[in-house]
Write a structure and sequence with these properties.
Layout: H1 2-14, E1 20-28, E2 39-46, E3 51-57, E4 68-72, E5 75-80, E6 83-88, E7 96-101, H2 108-121, H3 130-148, E8 154-155
Antiparallel strand pairs: 1-2, 1-8, 2-3, 4-5, 5-6, 6-7
Length: 158
Amino acid sequence: MHFIAALRYLLAAAAAGTRIARVACFSALLQEHLVPVDTVNATAVTDTGCSGIISMTFATEFKRGTEVEIVTTKGSVLWTPVSVKVVKDASLVVRSEVTKEFGQSTGVVEEMAAFAAAIEQGKLDERQTPLEALRDLEVLQRLLESGEENATVKAVEL
């Protein structure tokens, strides 16, 4: 779920509110103790028609790094648990690249702080609304359903 939420957040930030609209996924169970699925490889299409790849596995000890990369015609964002690299290409001549590094974090402390601030202010943090959580859950559900049906395209409707 957290990877889907991170992808949602980065897509919205990188492409002005873009959301995943359709997915087609192959899934697998490679390690019996990780039932029902430990690996997904999917194509996702956004509501603006852009496509990308979602590839996640929890079945191997040899790929421990986590990264999410969003690439557009105007730049890219590469997120890892310890850094964010933003490349902007305003034209063929001007290009900027900024990397910010952070300490290792699971994000739980930050999430709880945002939740507490929302309570204090009496206003929900838009990243933590029930609708956003439901949208993340729907993306994951459609990935799993598509995987069960041999990569049948599934619409993400919320």
